[in-house]
UniProtKB/TrEMBL annotation:
Chain spans, region Disordered: 291-310
Top-level division of the source organism's lineage: Bacteria
Basic and acidic residues composition bias: residue spans: 293-307
Name of this chain's protein: WD40 repeat domain-containing protein
Length: 751
C-alpha cells in the first residue's frame, strides 16, 4: 500500500534541504554547558543539576565542625529530639550525638564500648536499651545506661544489619556465612555476657536466637520489610536480591548479579522497593585512599590528576515494583552509593568517592546531582525536620547538614571545559528560563590556555547581560570555567543548559604535497561529483556546518582530480598541489613563476582558482630555470578582515626544449657480445637514458649509465647484446633522452 506523506512533513523536509544547501557559517562554534555533566557535586550550593543538563532548586550542604567522633564512622541511627547514635571503628565505640540546630554544632558522648574493633550495626530498642552488632567477630550486645547487659556471639564474622519487626522481634543479618537470625529480645537480654564464639546454631536457641533464613552467597548485607510482610535481603559479593516469607524459610530470587554489593534497600508504600547496588571489579576499592601527607616543598611533589576517580566500579539503583519486573532507574560510573532515603517524591542518595549526593526524580525519570561534601564518602544519613538531613561522612570523618529549606544564595562552579582549540569567546546564552528572569543571574568566567586545574587561570570576569546573552570584551582561551549565582529567594525555577559561542583561532594552511609533472603530458579533468539534491536522515540528525549541496568538499574535488586521464601533449606542463586548512576554510590559489636569473615581476599562470592544479603551455617561455610560488588565500564565508593569505615557496621549474648533444659513439665486440656505447651531454637537464634500435628489428633501452650513477648532464650508456640477437644487423640507431623529454639520435654502422 502506497502512503502519501502529509503536507506539513513535505514542507519541513523542503525547508531543511534548502537550509542544507545554503552556505553555512563554519566559523562560530558552540559549546553546550551541561550542568548535569559539567558541575561536580561539591561545587553546587542551593542548586540541583539534572541529568538532562537543567538546573533546579536544590539543597545547601554544610560540613559541620565539632569534637572527634571516631576514625571510621559506620552508621547513623536517630534517637529523637536531635539525638543520634554513631557506630565507630577501629575502637569499637558507640557515640551519642546531640545536634544543636540553632548554631549547627554538636556534642559527643560515649554510650557503649564493645570488645570487637567495629560496631557496624545499631538498633535503639523501645525500652531505652541499645542493640549492637559487631565485626570482625559477629556478636550481639545489649547495652543499657552505658553498661553491657548481654553479649551473645554468633557463628559468623560480622553482623551487617538489624531490622525491627512489628511483633517486637529483630532480624540480624550476618556475613560469612550469609544467614538471617531472628532475635527474641527478652531472652537475649537475659542471656548474660558470653565470651568467645558460638559455633553451633542449636546452642543459640536458649538465648532467644533462631535461624530465620540463609543464602548461598557469603554475606547478607541489608534487610528490609515490605508492606505485605515479606522480608527482602541483599547480598555480597554477588549482589543478589532475595525475598523471604514473613515466617522465614527458603528464599526466592528477585534478581541475580555478579561482583556486586547491595548497599541499601528502601521500601515504598505500594509494596515495592528500591535497591542500591555497587558493582566492583576484582581490584577495586570502595574506600578512597587517604589524602597524601603534606610536603613542605610543593614544587617537588609528584603531579597527580585530582579529577581521576579512586573507585573504578559503578553503582546503580534498581526499582522492584510490587507486581512487575525490576528496572534500573539510574546509574553512575566511578561512584559508590551508600544510602537511600526519600525527600518528597525524590530519591536521595549519599555516595563516594568525591563526597557526592545524588537524587532521582521519578516523575521526570531523571537523575539529580545535589551539593556534596569535601570528604570522600557520605556513609549514612538521618532525617531532622523541615527538609533537613544529618549526614555521616568519612575521610575525613565527621557530620554534615543538608538543608532543602531555602538558601541565602544559590551558586555553582563548573569543571574545566575544553573548547577544542584556543579562540575568541562570544556570548553565553540560556535558551530558556522558567520562573526566573535573566537579570537575576550573575555569570562569571575564567579562561586558560593550559589544562592545569590550578595554574594559569585568568581572574574571574563578570559577564554583562547584553541582548539576551552574557558577554565580555576581549575574552580568549582554550579552557573555560564558569561561576553562576542566583538569588536565594528564587524557589521554583528551571534553567536549561547554556551555550557558549566562540570562534576558534584561525590557523594557517599547510602545503602537504607539491608536484611538477614531467613535461609534455596533459590531463583531462574528471567531472566533479554531481551536487546532492536531497537530504539524508543523517544530515537532519547530525548537520555539518560544511554541508553545501552546491559545492563539493575538498576531499570530493581531490578524488575527482585523481581520477582524471593523463594524455601525451607536446609543450604542456602540469603542476599539482595539495593544501590542508585545519579550520576547513574555502581556499583560492594563485600560482606564479619568475626566471631564476631575473629580479623582475612574477608571472601569474593562474589567479584565484579553487582547483589544485594548473596546466600551461611552455612554448612562450624562454628556456632556463624558473622559481615558483603558490599563494593561498582564505575566502568567504570568513570575513575579509580575518582572512589569512600565505605564500609558499615551491620547487623550481625547468623549461628545456633543446635536445642533448651526442658527443661520441663506439662499437666493439668481445666474448660473443656486441658492445654499443654512446656519450652525450645536455646544457640544462640531466640525461635520462638511451634507446638502441637495430635494423634487424631488435630494440632495447638502457637507463643506467656506464659509471652506474645517473647524476650528471654528461653520461655514457652502453648496450651489451649477444651476437645471436645482432645477427643480420648492419646499423643501429641510437636515441639519447634528457629528463625533460628532449631527444637526439644518431645512426651508426655495425662493423
Amino acid at each position: 500500500m502506497f502512503l502519501r506523506p502529509n503536507p506539513p512533513f513535505v514542507y519541513f523536509v523542503c525547508f531543511v534541504v534548502t537550509c542544507l544547501g545554503l552556505r553555512a557559517d563554519p566559523l562560530t562554534k558552540q559549546l553546550d554547558i551541561d550542568f548535569g555533566r559539567d558541575v561536580a557535586s561539591r561545587n553546587l550550593k542551593g542548586l540541583a543539576a539534572r541529568s538532562d543538563g537543567r538546573l533546579l532548586p536544590g539543597p545547601v550542604f554544610t560540613d559541620l565542625t565539632g569534637p572527634k567522633i571516631g576514625d571510621i564512622l559506620w552508621n547513623l541511627e536517630a534517637l529523637g529530639n536531635n539525638r543520634f547514635l554513631v557506630g565507630t571503628g577501629p575502637d569499637g565505640k558507640v557515640q551519642e550525638i546531640t545536634y544543636n540546630p540553632k548554631d549547627s554544632t554538636y556534642t559527643v558522648r560515649e554510650v557503649a564500648d564493645v570488645d570487637e574493633t567495629h560496631a557496624i550495626s545499631l538498633l535503639p530498642l523501645p525500652d531505652g536499651a541499645l542493640l549492637v552488632g559487631t565485626s570482625p567477630t559477629a556478636a550481639l550486645y545489649v547495652v543499657k545506661d552505658g553498661k553491657t547487659t548481654a553479649r551473645v556471639p554468633l557463628p559468623a564474622d560480622s553482623v551487617f544489619d538489624l531490622l525491627a519487626l512489628p511483633d517486637g522481634t529483630v532480624l540480624a543479618a550476618t556475613g560469612n556465612p550469609g544467614k538471617i537470625y531472628k532475635l527474641d529480645l527478652k531472652k537475649l537480654a537475659a542471656a548474660g555476657v558470653i565470651e568467645g564464639k558460638v559455633e553451633n546454631d542449636t546452642l543459640l536457641s536458649d538465648r532467644g536466637i533462631t535461624l530465620f533464613g540463609e543464602i548461598r552467597d557469603r554475606n547478607v548485607r541489608r534487610l528490609a520489610r515490605l508492606s505485605d510482610g515479606r522480608i527482602v535481603a541483599g547480598s555480597s559479593p554477588k549482589g543478589n536480591l532475595y525475598s523471604f516469607a514473613a515466617a522465614g524459610g527458603a528464599p526466592l530470587f528477585l534478581q541475580e548479579n555478579r561482583d556486586a554489593e547491595v548497599v541499601d534497600l528502601l521500601p515504598d508504600a505500594e509494596g515495592g522497593f528500591h535497591a542500591a547496588l555497587v558493582f566492583t571489579p576484582g581490584d577495586a576499592l570502595r574506600l578512597a585512599a587517604k589524602p597524601p601527607a603534606e610536603t613542605k616543598d610543593d614544587s617537588r611533589a609528584p603531579d597527580r590528576d585530582t579529577t581521576k576517580p579512586a573507585f573504578a566500579g559503578r553503582s546503580t539503583v534498581v526499582r522492584f515494583p510490587a507486581d512487575g519486573f525490576p528496572e534500573s532507574v539510574m546509574g553512575k560510573p566511578n561512584v559508590s552509593f551508600y544510602r537511600l532515603a526519600r525527600h518528597g517524591d525524590w530519591l536521595l542518595l549519599t555516595a563516594g568517592e568525591q563526597g557526592d549526593t545524588f537524587g532521582y526524580d521519578p516523575a521526570a525519570r531523571r537523575s539529580l546531582t545535589f551539593a556534596g561534601s569535601a570528604s570522600a564518602q557520605l556513609n549514612d544519613l538521618a532525617v531532622l525536620d523541615d527538609g533537613r538531613y544529618l549526614l555521616l561522612r568519612n575521610n575525613a570523618p565527621g557530620l554534615a547538614l543538608m538543608a532543602f529549606n531555602g538558601a541565602a544564595e544559590r551558586s555553582l562552579e563548573t569543571k574545566r571545559l575544553d573548547l577544542g582549540q584556543a579562540g575568541d569567546l562570544g556570548a553565553v546564552r540560556f535558551p530558556r528560563l522558567r520562573g526566573l528572569d535573566e537579570s537575576a543571574l550573575q555569570l562569571e568566567i575564567s579562561t586558560n590556555y593550559g589544562n592545569d586545574e590550578l595554574e594559569g587561570w585568568s581572574p574571574w570576569t563578570k559577564l554583562t547581560l547584553r541582548d539576551g546573552g552574557f558577554t565580555a570584551d576581549s575574552l580568549r582561551g582554550r579552557y573555560v570555567r564558569y561561576r553562576l549565582t542566583l538569588p536565594g529567594k528564587a524557589a521554583d525555577f528551571q534553567l536549561d543548559k547554556a551555550v557558549q559561542y566562540h570562534r576558534p583561532q584561525n590557523r594557517r594552511p599547510s602545503l602537504s604535497d607539491f608536484r611538477i609533472f614531467p613535461p609534455n603530458q596533459g590531463i583531462v579533468p574528471a567531472p566533479e561529483p554531481a551536487p546532492t539534491v536531497v537530504a539524508t536522515l543523517g544530515q537532519l540528525l547530525f548537520p555539518s556546518q560544511r554541508d553545501n549541496k552546491d559545492e563539493p568538499s575538498p576531499g570530493q574535488r581531490r578524488g575527482a582530480l585523481l581520477n582524471s586521464q593523463v594524455i601525451p601533449q607536446t609543450g604542456v606542463q602540469v603542476v599539482y598541489w595539495s593544501v590542508n586548512d585545519p579550520d576547513g576554510d574555502a581556499l583560492a590559489y594563485t600560482f606564479s613563476i619568475r626566471p631564476d636569473t631575473a629580479q623582475g615581476d612574477w608571472t601569474d599562470l593562474t589567479v584565484g582558482t579553487t582547483d589544485s592544479f594548473v596546466q600551461f603551455e611552455t612554448g612562450g617561455l624562454a628556456e632556463g630555470l624558473y622559481l615558483t610560488r603558490l599563494n593561498v588565500a582564505e575566502q568567504a564565508p570568513r570575513p575579509a578582515g580575518q582572512r589569512i593569505t600565505y605564500t609558499f615557496e615551491t620547487d623550481s621549474l625547468l623549461v628545456d626544449r633543446t635536445p642533448p648533444v651526442i658527443t661520441g659513439t663506439q662499437i666493439s665486440r668481445a666474448d660473443g657480445k656486441l658492445l654499443v656505447t654512446i656519450t652525450g651531454r645536455d646544457a640544462l637537464a640531466l640525461l635520462e637514458g638511451a634507446e638502441f634500435v637495430l635494423n634487424n628489428g631488435v630494440r632495447d633501452v638502457v637507463m643506467h649509465p656506464v659509471d652506474g650513477l645517473l647524476d650528471a648532464r654528461e653520461e655514457s650508456f652502453r648496450l651489451e647484446l649477444p651476437e645471436a640477437r645482432a645477427a643480420g644487423a648492419t646499423s643501429v640507431e641510437i636515441i639519447l633522452y634528457d629528463q625533460t623529454g628532449n631527444a637526439s639520435s644518431a645512426r651508426v654502422p655495425l662493423k
